Please model this.
Amino acid sequence: EVQLVQSGAEVKKPGESLKISCKGSGYSFTSYWIGWVRQMPGKGLEWMGIIYPGDSDTRYSPSFQGQVTISADKSISTAYLQWSSLKASDTAMYYCARLSSGYNEDYYYYMDVWGKGTTVTVSS
Amino acid sequence: DIQLTQSPSFLSASVGDRVTITCRASQGISSYLAWYQQKPGKAPKLLIYAASTLQSGVPSRFSGSGSGTEFTLTISSLQPEDFATYYCQQLNSYPHTFGGGTKVEIK
Model:
């Protein structure tokens, strides 16, 4: 079964660092991009960035560039999202998702496999 | 960044109704658009990609159309399990932005 398993809920204080994870299984982890999506409480989905575990090529949304770091360890099929200094405004659910492609006269991309999400709460 | 504007942001409908949700892009994105369904407390679920291709296992009452800047998601006959929030996403260029969402509630 293809799945992405995310690490558990985190409760942190402002200024602390954090690294959450997303482990892929059931497919070739190095052959698919993995993206991260934020959902603040009661709000919509925000695309944060994406990494290709095969060579660690990474793209960030300008809104998140410099605020978070996306990385991957292909030896253990795991992608990461990390913060060096959390803020209260980082409180949210964070999802990882696999970017797949289909061909219909062109290659089309979509996020077809999602993790269950990691809740991050930042509060003093 | 490409902005996606969904309308309406909220709609109230009854079981059996035909429902249409619109997603407008701030610039042309060809057919690089996907639709997702999200239920409370759950991860999003892919419904449609390439604007009109139904993901495997998704009921045929869901359909998508459009290209360029205007897209629609249609549910031909709303079922109780379809009450959820729906999002469009463009995958034409980075960042792969999402629309603001459309919440479909029971009338």
Notes: The longest strand of chain A covers residues 92-103.
